[in-house]
Design a protein that fits this description.
Elements lengths: L15 H9 L5 H5 L5 E3 L15 E14 L5 E7 L5 E6 L4 H6 L5 E7 L1 E3 L2 E5 L2 E4 L13 E3 L8 H18 L16 H9 L7 H5 L4 H27 L10 H9 L6 H14 L6 E6 L5 H14 L3 E5 L3 H15 L6 E4 L5 H13 L4 E4 L13 E7 L6 H8 L7 E6 L5 H7 L4 E5 L10 E6 L3 H13 L3 E5 L7 H18 L5 E4 L5 H12 L5 E4 L12 E6 L7 H8 L10 E6 L5 H12 L3 H12 L1 H5 L21 H12 L3 H11 L5 H4 L2
Parallel strand pairs: 4-7, 10-15, 10-16, 11-13, 11-14, 12-13, 14-15, 17-22, 18-20, 18-21, 19-20, 21-22
Antiparallel strand pairs: 1-9, 2-3, 2-5, 3-4, 5-8, 6-7
Helix pairs in contact: 5-7, 7-22, 7-23, 8-10, 9-10, 10-11, 19-20
Bound molecules: adenosine-5'-diphosphate and magnesium ion.
Length: about 700
């Protein structure tokens, strides 16, 4: 007997090519087909009388053929006039057809047609309907339930997909399907089997609008189950990690106290809370994996510095990884400014270092002379051997993948503690679903004395006014970023366009120093320019998005962003975060090319309304969806089968409730649930 665990290749007529196509979208066995849900339905449960057929509706009609003709238009058309017994008429049009087809359509025959009703010169029409010639003995189009329309892939056709899912549904009917939620939900929800039956073959009269909005109880049933599985799998990961052994740090606080008294400012309550949370983790013998979230400028660096000091006092090295060389250089500067006075030795490792310097740095890392190592992704390379790595800090984590996180962790004997800093606040719903395996500290307040950046949107036609504004700002001895965000695909074209802007600004600002920086320059050049800008030797910095993250120049108080309509919210917020870091009131001008799309209007509006990174992140999530935000390889969240945490956020409370119930059940039961929804053992099916 067929079982749901059978591979799809066991279905008659499903060959290796189709198997590959289906595998590619995560369908390996019959059970997976059950979860390939229709995205809409057609109603073929009844015939619609012609006087009830509304233009735009898809309807099933049964009529008789009155006449058939080929129109001598440029492209030949086959036209077939149909009528009902009251003389009401419908015209069929075929723009491509063959002679056989034409011969089959015979005056007086009964025909069933299913298609969208259109309006033409002579009244109602249907183009290329699905049809059956009843008089010729063809089977009826009439169905008992609504007909599912499935998402397709490759060159698989709708009838094939329908047939294959149908096979799986037959097996479901006979053999059933283990229901992980049995008994948990009482009678408040349909069973898994019922939910699947409703969604594949809704009865006539089922609330299709609800289904289209993903609010139907059968969908809720599946969504809750999928989100539970997602969450349980992350909790399981977390549990696994907690079983690993890490080095226990002993808090000495000598260096920390020293740093405290040198700081020159008070830590915010949120910073102090984060430091305490991190310290508690570091004293445990299980590896920390903590997300440190804080808006741009919220002061994450100093929190990371305190964590370094704990590692150092316990005799361990810290590796700090930045996504770009510019940022690594910036971190070197800011970390050294805090650490050097305490006598801590810091090494830098980047891809552009020459062999001599690199060898020196590698030696220091191997010997343990370097207590803190700052670098880019080069820190992962095999040549890098740490003496006693105890803590890994990763900045701007969304630029990395989970893999990189882990491979750096493997450079230590015991699993090192890890702190992942992100400047793009991640909405809570997303954190829970995508980062449920991480603990999280949130810096939700800015240091005092910051004035929020005023944000203005201006169309490109008002460039002159922008140049005037730049003059004012420079005359007041403040500095300006002009960001060319490109449109062009290649870095070469980007650089070229930035070069044009650079010339334009030089011409229009003859009394000020305008300097260009872009990704095609070599590292030294870039670094020199950034340093000059930081020292106030440059008034206006024209940059491609190389300055996107992390750069800290408090005297810069105006940021102009070109083509802002083309950028995502998170990126715009990041860029804007480069200003508003000093005492002076800062402005961000978002320049755009009209007309704006609705989506772009919404993005620019939210930026004008708020500086709150969490609010912006929520809006971003709403506008773009989680897959876009996290990047596809980041988590399984982008390829959830049914759930969408933005759309289904309202169900999270119930998800948590059921998760709690599940945590009280056996581990087998939890595993079964996870395995149903999260297919990571694809290899198992590949070999069958
Ligand atoms: P981010 O969270 O964006 O990485 P940084 O750590 O770069 O922010 O901090 C931004 C600026 O705020 C730095 O110049 C830093 O010295 C300053 N800063 C950090 N914490 C405080 C505080 N509690 N009070 C005043 N200034 C602070
Ligand atoms: Mg930073």
């Amino acid at each position: 007997m067929r079982e749901l665990s059978n591979p799809i290749i066991s279905i008659n007529g499903l060959g290796p090519k189709a198997q590959d196509k289906l595998n590619a979208i995560g369908i390996y066995n019959l059970e997976h087909l059950l979860f390939h849900l229709p995205f809409r339905y057609q109603n073929k449960t009844q015939f619609t009388p012609l006087d009830k057929a509304r233009v735009g509706d898809e309807v099933l009609v049964q009529l008789s053929i009155e006449s058939v003709e080929t129109l001598p238009t440029r492209i030949h058309q086959l036209v077939c006039h149909l009528a009902d017994d009251k003389g009401r008429r419908l015209l069929l049009r075929f723009f491509h057809f063959n002679q056989y087809q034409k011969q089959q359509l015979v005056r007086g025959d009964i025909i069933q047609c299913f298609g969208e009703v259109k309006i033409g010169k002579e009244g109602l029409e249907m183009h290329h309907p699905e049809y059956r010639l009843i008089s010729k003995g063809q089977s009826t189009l009439l169905e008992k339930t609504l007909s599912p329309i499935y998402p397709l892939t490759g060159n698989i056709h709708q009838p094939q997909m329908k047939k294959w899912v149908g096979v799986a549904m037959e097996v479901l009917k006979k053999s059933g399907l283990s229901d992980n939620f049995e008994g948990l939900m009482g009678n408040s929800m349909p069973s898994l089997k019922q939910a699947l039956e409703i969604l594949h073959h809704p009865q006539e009269g089922e609330n299709l609008e609800q289904i289209a909005a993903f609010k139907h109880i059968a969908q809720q049933r599946l969504i809750i189950e999928e989100l539970c599985a997602q969450r349980l799998s992350l909790l399981a990961l977390k549990k696994q990690r907690k079983r690993k052994i890490a080095n226990v740090f002993t808090l000495k606080n000598t260096l920390s106290n020293q740093l405290h008294s040198n700081l020159g400012f008070e830590l915010t309550a949120a910073q102090q809370r984060s430091i305490d949370e991190i310290n508690a983790d570091l004293c445990s013998n299980h590896p920390m994996l903590r997300l440190l979230q804080g808006d741009v400028g919220s002061g994450k660096t100093i929190v990371a510095v305190f964590a370094c000091l704990q590692a150092i006092e316990s005799g361990f090295q810290t590796a700090i990884m930045a996504p770009t060389e510019i940022l690594a250089a910036q971190h070197l500067q800011s970390f050294t400014s805090y650490l050097a006075p305490l006598g801590v030795k810091v090494a830098l490792l980047t891809g552009s270092q020459n062999t001599k310097i690199r060898t020196e740095q590698l030696d220091k890392i191997r010997s343990g002379q370097a207590q803190v190592v700052i670098g880019t992704h080069t820190l992962f390379q095999e040549a890098v051997v740490f003496n006693k790595l105890g803590l890994v800090i990763i900045d701007e984590q969304h630029k990395f993948g989970v893999h990189q996180r882990l491979s750096l962790a493997q450079k230590a004997h015991n699993t090192p503690h890890q702190l992942v800093m992100t400047a793009t606040p991640i909405p809570r719903s997303l954190t829970m679903s995508a980062y449920g395996d991480l603990d999280s500290s949130i810096i939700d307040e800015l240091p005092p004395g910051r004035t929020p950046v005023q944000t203005i949107a201006l169309s490109n036609e008002r460039k002159d006014e922008v140049v005037e504004k730049i003059k004012q700002v420079c005359d007041a001895n403040n500095q300006v970023y002009w960001v060319c965000t490109l449109v062009e695909e290649s870095e070469a074209l980007r650089a070229e366009s930035a070069t044009n802007t650079h010339h334009y600004l030089q011409e229009n600002l003859p009394n000020h120093t305008v300097v260009l920086i872009h990704g095609r320059m070599n590292k030294d050049e870039k670094q020199t320019i950034m340093q000059q800008f930081a020292h106030g030797e440059i008034n206006v910095l024209v940059a491609t998005t190389v300055i996107e993250v992390g750069v800290n120049v408090p005297n810069a108080s105006l940021m102009v962003i070109e083509n802002s309509e083309r950028l995502g919210l998170a990126q715009l917020h990041q860029l804007r975060g480069r200003v508003g870091r000093g005492r002076d009131k800062s402005i961000c001008i978002l320049m755009y090319q009209p007309p704006l799309s609705t989506n772009a209007i919404q993005r620019l509006d939210i930026l004008r309304q708020t500086n709150d990174g969490f609010k912006i992140a929520n809006k971003d999530l709403e506008l773009r969806g989680p897959g876009e935000i996290l990047g596809t390889q980041q988590t399984g969240i982008a390829d959830m089968k049914i759930a969408n945490i933005v759309r289904d956020g309202y169900l999270l409370k119930r998800v948590h409730f059921y998760c709690e119930q599940f945590l009280n059940t056996s581990e087998d039961k939890q595993c079964a649930l996870i395995q149903r929804w999260i297919t990571d053992d694809k290899a198992q099916y590949a070999s069958t």
